[in-house]
Amino acid sequence: MTDTAVIEIALHMMLVTAKVSAPILLTSLGIGLGISLFQSVTQIQEVTLTFVPKLAAVAVVIVISGHWMLNQIVGFTNELFAMIPHLIAS
After folding, report:
1. For the segment 10-44, what is each residue's pLDDT rounded down to a tens digit?
2. pTM (2 decimals)?
């Protein structure tokens, strides 16, 4: 197993992680920004106001894109298992 193989696997892992977490993070960011704007306009300074809408939106995103997320993770895992004989041989 060479240094380049390890770096390649780590890079691919980080890309898959970024792709899988992006829908949840972007949804949470958008909801947080919207509620923050609402709070600044209405001058309501309640910290817990953002929790329930973010939780609901993230749950909806997981329901909608969970199948795709799982396929990405399983595909990456299958690629890793397929690489084992090649990595051991080198």
Report:
1. 999 999 999 999 999 999 999 999 999 999 899 88
2. 0.81
Nearest 10 degrees: Cα torsion 69, 21, 48, 35: -100
Residue 87 DSSP label = H
Please, what's the largest Cα pairwise distance for the chain?
64
Is the Cβ–Cβ distance between 10 and 25 less than 8 Å?
no
Tokens of residue 90, six digits: 């080198």
Cα dist. 19→8, 76, 88 in Å?
17, 12, 28
Phi-psi region of 43 (alpha: psi -120 to 50; beta: other; left: phi over 0): left
Domains of the chain, residue spans? 3-89
pLDDT at res. 45:
82
